[in-house]
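Journal club prep — side note

Before the paper discussion, L.F. wants everyone to see what a predicted structure for a comparable chain looks like in token form. Sequence:
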Amino acid sequence: MAAALDSPRQETAPRFAPVLGRFALAGVAAGAASGLWALAVTERAIAPALAVEEARGDGHEHGEELVSRGTQLVGGFLGTVVAAVVFSVVVAAVYAGVRHRLPGRTDVGRVAVLTAIGFGVFALLPAVKIPANPPAVGDPDTVGTRTAIYIAVLGAGVVTALLVSALVGTLRARGLHPSAVAAAAVLAGLALVVATVLLVPDNPDGIAADVPAAVVWDFRLASLGQLAVMWTTLGLVAGYLVDRLARRR
């Protein structure tokens, strides 16, 4: 009995329903932070692109806007919050399924790893291969092609994450040193990312001569920053809340 009392307690995973609620709450925070970034930074990067579109007008007077810009911004903010909550629910389901496989001694570390992978797959890799363009850039006739390329990049990112995860599990099962496992995972991930960049077709739209390069890159960096804010906030808040839940158990 004394031995049983001295032995360490086996960690048990929190139930899914409380985890889901905490991820959803973190999604509200992530959506709000992302929406504030959009209002403060991304909107400033969009304004010059809208000015370029205005300058391309044919000289005829346009009708009054059905929805004011202010209403659009409020709607965009609320839409960002709703989308972040929905996405956080999906991340919660994934976390419940792979929690025991994620590295980290606490749920803060595990959630941080998962959200870092999510940022790499759903934000960073698409930004490298098919970066976002401001409203003044893009041919409406290529929307279908661009969407297909974007979906292909996301699919390749998901496959990369699954293959690297399987590799890590195999190497761990064989008893390799953690540093060797980490090095193999990084090399495999880089190789698959390079293959994705080289094999997936490029964006068919070029940058028009009347669109300054600074306008394009300011918008791209602002868009990537908005996603980074969302993923970072989701990881920090969800990790903190889920870790508190696990400690109480």
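L.F.'s comment for the group: The two ends are 23 Å apart (CA to CA). Keep this in mind when we get to the figures.
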